[in-house]
Specification:
Strand content of chain A: 15-25%
Mean pLDDT of chain A: 90
Shape of chain A: elongated
Radius of gyration of chain A: 14 Å
Structural class of chain A: alpha+beta
Helix content of chain A: 25-40%
Strand order of the largest sheet of chain A: 2-1-3-4
Strand order of the largest sheet of chain B: 2-3-1-4-5
Order of helices and strands of chain B: HHHHEHEHHEHHEEHH
Low-confidence stretches of chain B: none
Largest interface: A-B, 21 and 21 residues
Number of domains of chain B: 2
CATH architecture of the largest domain in chain B: 2-Layer Sandwich
CATH superfamily of chain A: Glutaredoxin
Order of helices and strands of chain A: EHEEEH
Number of helices of chain B: 11
CATH superfamily of the largest domain in chain B: Ribosomal protein L10, N-terminal RNA-binding domain
CATH topology of chain A: Glutaredoxin
CATH class of chain A: Alpha Beta
CATH topology of the largest domain in chain B: Alpha-Beta Plaits
Number of helices of chain A: 2
Largest sheet of chain B: 5 strands, antiparallel
Distance between the termini of chain B: 147 Å
Strand content of chain B: 5-15%
Radius of gyration of chain B: 39 Å
Distance between the termini of chain A: 20 Å
CATH class of the largest domain in chain B: Alpha Beta
Shape of chain B: extended
Low-confidence stretches of chain A: none
Number of domains of chain A: 1
Oligomer: heterodimer
Chain lengths: 98, 352
């Protein structure tokens, strides 16, 4: 997964619900120096009884917000979605000569 | 070259003392069979000596025992059986330096707790036994299933003769001593029987068991130590992190970077699954297990005093009634005696 262009990751999940796997795997994909390189990562672990759906909000460098629907998406689909926009940004960078 | 120490050839000879058996000559075949009966037909066809083909402590397992998976499985089973309190963390790409720093902070905090406990007169010290370790999630889930659902000791089969037991006679017929894992007599945690009995079961902890996981294992449910661990690894309002003045090393870069990447997911306390709130509740038990005991004792003492009062009151009232009756009777008797004496006196006077 291309994580260079992410600036903000907000997650909220109940670890006891099976839908939370996607969020947890997404968090595990972020590189070790993510926080040091300026990415803001907020995680909130919900109590066991809560029925609140898992939340995964991603913000890119150009200000685009992506709110991913985790009821349906698996981690591969989430990665595809994030990579799609990241590739556009990478292309722009390349064209600007960076 | 001849040996430097001269050995006498007499000493090299193995001494075999053969007992001279009286020579018995059998003239009749019928008598000969009486002396030595023919073995049963099974023994002559199948040769099955009662010797185990595997070491006593290493019975055959479902997966080959020498591979890493099997050894981890065994190790996780023993961890699960020996630690009543386990915290589950997700670790997101921590670096080796960060792990090292976290382990160092954890050890120093726990040693402090132990020092406090020693000062308070406790004898149980767990600082060296509480460890944070990364686990292989799938193997851990399998080991947990075996620990939760497989209890062969609850349905014991009648004791069988074990081939390597010296008490087993050499002529005993033992069904199968070949090292095949299919044998249903193997009931250990790594056996095929354990695998088949548990592989389809569902765990409560199943949704937690995915992704990169780390365990903090405690050899006993000790809220004091849990409190220290929580304040280091996932500090919150109830369990504040140590202050910079008290413990400056905690606020160093690698420690902080590592702790940000650790997420507390849940816990397993005495076989039950707890979420974060539950863990906080366990950690918040004041005074640890002794505090709980003191509360219980106080409660029971209050109840005990009430019970004794009620039980005593019946006896006491009976005692008072009886005493009252006794004194009354005594008074009456005294009165009668007094009257009698008076009458006697009167009679004497009249006689005079």
């Amino acid at each position: 997964m291309i994580t260079r262009f992410l600036t903000d990751v907000r997650t909220k999940f109940n670890p006891f619900s099976p839908r939370a796997k996607t969020v947890r795997k997404f968090l595990a994909l972020l590189p070790p120096n993510a926080r040091a390189s300026g990415m803001k990562i907020e995680t909130q672990v919900l109590p066991r009884q809560s029925k609140e759906p898992a939340l995964l909000e991603v913000k890119f460098r150009d200000g685009k917000k992506l709110n991913l629907d985790l009821e349906k998406m698996r981690i591969t689909e989430v990665m595809e979605e994030v990579d799609r926009h990241s590739r556009i940004l990478a292309r722009k960078d390349e064209l600007l000569g960076n | 070259m001849p040996p430097r120490l001269r050995l006498q050839t007499r000493n090299l000879r193995i001494c075999i003392q053969q007992r001279q058996l009286p020579i018995q000559q059998c003239f009749y075949a019928s008598l000969a069979t009486a002396i030595r009966p023919t073995p049963p037909i099974d023994q002559t066809i199948y040769s099955m000596p009662p010797t185990a083909r595997f070491p006593h402590k290493q019975p055959p397992s479902h997966k080959p025992p020498e591979i890493r998976k099997s050894q981890l499985h065994r190790q996780y089973q023993s961890v699960l059986k020996s630690s009543p309190l386990i915290l589950l963390f997700q670790h997101n790409n921590l670096r080796a330096v960060e792990w090292m720093a976290i382990r160092r902070e954890l050890a120093s905090a726990l040693r402090k707790v132990d020092a406090d406990r020693a000062a308070a007169g406790h004898t149980e010290m767990y600082a060296d036994a509480i460890k944070i370790q990364i686990i292989q999630t799938g193997i851990f889930a399998s080991a947990l299933r075996v620990v939760e659902f497989y209890h062969p000791e609850e349905h014991p089969e009648p004791p069988k003769q074990h081939p390597s037991d010296p008490a087993t006679v050499s002529s005993a017929l033992i069904p199968n001593t070949k090292p095949t894992p299919d044998d249903p007599r193997f009931t250990h945690g790594l056996s095929r029987r354990a695998h088949e009995a548990t592989s389809k079961k569902k765990l409560v902890l199943d949704p937690l068991l995915c992704g990169p996981l780390a365990l903090v294992t405690f050899p006993a449910v000790s809220p004091q130590h849990l409190k220290a661990v929580l304040s280091i690894l996932s500090s919150s309002k109830e369990f504040p992190a140590p202050k910079r003045k008290v413990q400056p090393s905690y606020h160093e870069g690698p420690v902080q970077a590592g702790i940000q990447k650790l997420m507390l997911l849940g816990a397993r306390v005495d076989g039950k699954v707890f979420d974060q709130e539950g863990i906080k509740w366990v950690g918040g038990i004041t005074g640890g297990i002794d505090g709980l005991r003191a509360q219980l004792v106080a409660l029971l003492q209050g109840a005990g005093a009430g019970v004794t009062n009620t039980l005593e009151s019946a006896g006491r009232s009976l005692y008072f009634t009886m005493e009252g009756r006794k004194s009354m009777l005594e008074d009456v008797q005294k009165g009668e005696n007094g009257e009698k004496e008076e009458k006697a006196d009167m009679a004497e006077k009249r006689a005079e």
